[in-house]
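PT: before anyone asks, these are the final sequences, not the draft ones from last week. 909 residues across everything. Please model them as a single complex and drop the result in this thread when it's through.
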Amino acid sequence: MSVLASARRPARVIPGFGITLGFTLAYLSLFVLIPLSTVAFKTIDMGWSGFWGVLTDPRTQHALYLSFGTALIAALVNAVFGLLIAWMLVRYTFPGRRLIDAAVDLPFALPTAVAGIALTALYADNGWIGSILHGLGLKVAYTPVGIVVALVFIGLPFVVRSVQPVLEDLNLDVEEAAATLGATRWHTFSRVILPAALPSLLTGFALAFARGVGEYGSVIFIAGNLPKVSEIAPLLIVIRLEEFNYAGATAIAALMLAISFLGLLAINLLQAWNRRRTGGE
Amino acid sequence: MAFSAKQTFYAALTSVLIAGGAASSVAQADTTLLNVSYDPTRELYKEFNAAFAEDYKKQTGETVTLRMSHGGSGKQARSVIDGLEADVVTLALAYDIDALVENGGLLGADWQNKFASNSSPYTSTIVFLVRKGNPKAIHDWSDLTRQGVQVITPNPKTSGGARWNYLAAWGWAEKAYNGDDAKVRGYMRDLFNNVPVLDTGARGATTTFVQRELGDVLLAWENEAFLAIEELGPDKFEIVVPPFSILAEPPVAVVDKVVDKRGTRKVAEAYLNYLYSPTGQKIAAKNYYRPISPQYADPQDLKRFPAIDLVKIDDPLFGGWQKAQKTHFSDGGVFDQIYQPK
Amino acid sequence: MKSSLIAANRGALIAESALIRTVIVLVGVAFLALFLFMPLVLVFAQALSSGLGAYFAALIEPDAWAALKLTLLVAVISVPLNLIFGLAAAWAIAKFSFPGKSLLITLIDLPFSVSPVIAGLIYVLLFGSRGWLGPWLSAHNIEIVFAIPGIVLATIFVTLPFVARELIPLMEQQGTTDEEAARTLGAGGLKIFFRVTLPNVKWGLLYGVLLCNARAMGEFGAVSVVSGHIRGVTNTMPLHVEILYNEYNFAAAFAVASLLAILALLTLVLKTWLESQGAGNGSNKH
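LR: through. Structure below.
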């Protein structure tokens, strides 16, 4: 507590603020902000009506709806299973636990194109899993469900890695107190553990969601890419570029950028607020 | 403990740096020529480039290194427009090379007159690839709209090959329904209702059909269909040649702005002219392209190309690529109107 | 009396029944098997489907080698740059308070959620021949997009947050007391950094570098937009996988993919080892 308190004191005793912040801002401007500003300027060039025209096009709307919708479903799936996996890794001992703990980061490390090709081969009607599902009358690859599968793969580590440290730090005494006071295990979970883990779960959910909205490499292989059915927004950007329609491409890009920026800002403000709340004042 | 951990940390850091030093830079040859092409020509140019380099060395004593870039035709054109320094382009359709003229004036508008036969040293057509034994009995374009037939074709908006597929179907329907526009559109609508997946490129569509075993018939370039059979098993697929199709002319061009800057005009022109030479024509036929000078090709190779009634893109029906593109494939064009996903 | 009973029952009170435990573990493992392990197994199964000879032939083929070299070159340039950036950003953000901090963190996070396609697009809009700087670059014969610099730039963009995001929470958690003490004892800025801060965060730092490196070598979407796909020149390994796949050379595509998967696994092994080192060291404070 005292450490955290002193961190917030304007501690200009330590040197290097100017140079590191200056370097950070310069680097960020050079590699991120200036390049990203091209999207903004290109969009301003096309004018409000042009921009609006692109965004109200049914095909664009469907692509955006699909990208955000599948990312949302995948993030929800990941929130549930990510929490379960994090819990399992923190609280239980079972054979292969360390292996599984390490493997959770696989989607961070495996190239998305490789993941896309592998998932397609696996979930296509003649694949290992797809053939079983096909027998049950279910289709995964080349449908929006396939997109969700790819996004679940991409997003899982975000949730697990956000929640895991919080679960590790949970104070067992509180759970114990709840139990002695007669709470059932489910009560303890829903009233004590979940509220404590919720901010980190939200962060993981939001990161998985944000990543899923923009994901391209793994999705294009498995999606089927039918306009107005399984065509995601990033693919539509690529298609617009290939039609030499730069304005159309940048308009979609601008909207997606704005949404991801606002989403991330919300998460970071939430986290900052949460740090203050739990900081001990 | 802390000391050993510190050591390992710096050892790890050092090894990362050494691994970095080991990655050497990419070697540069004296004369290089970059050919930016579309997807199905990989095998053709692999063989042709070797033959050309050898011949050029013999003729001039100069060594030339040929580099290839393959991808969807539209994507490749866009890359060239945005600065990919292609000395020559060999794309799927004239429209994509026209785009280089319009966007950035990379070559003259009269490029199609620079080489013989509309700058297309080889042609192809659109055929059907079906599963062995043709279980769905697909023989003509009319069979594609039957209930329960799944047709695989890439997206005409992104794939050059898919545009030829689309126009071939349109040409057939136009003839079959005596130009009744409503019926032609009805046919096209039914056709695309039978399409379960729209890949972005011709190669993606072939993979879907062959590897994922999706669909009953693949609309493909003739050369692509032959290649798929050769590479992936004659016991699994067969080619059905419809009685009517389209003359697909994949054109070639020297990119003036690039060759003048790099000083490679001479070798670039020699390269494309060599496509018209007996050797070039022979290699084209061998790789399943229909040569424009069949007399140079191996007669065995020619036997693979049955005569078909062919509509041309310059026929009044389509009126050339600029018009066809605008009518059919632009935003809100005919394709957008007929394409109604379920 | 009562309290000793609680102590004895501590494990039982806050644990689920054996049945629930088993169900949770089974569900978790099944989920991971479906989404993580099967794809990985498939990559190797397909890679070896044409035999070991074909597998190694695909790996030593010249274009595959060129792709490997380019991938390493790109990682070697972009990872150290992002490492320096991550250190500077974490120092400024974790050790000081200033207005707009959340905004700055958000901007650093942004590349995480920007679609890789957009990441490639922005460099084309900036440096492409019809981009802002295109005419000037062309006049001075400088190639950026469709050449190695473009690939490096796109990779830097995509991997920029990794080191910074790993370090910021760690440094915040550790506070500033150690540094302040060193300062009071008369140490200079660099000395504080190398003697006090760096040893405290080195494991987190290395973990960030590992993830950054893995993403740098595996990036597909952004690099695909700026690469130009020239064989043997601007093809990175992930792009080479796509090319082989498009040549119906599935076994070879999966062979190169398996090499990338091995790099990914190696990263995970190193990461696990780092964590055990970090925990043993007590430098991780939680």
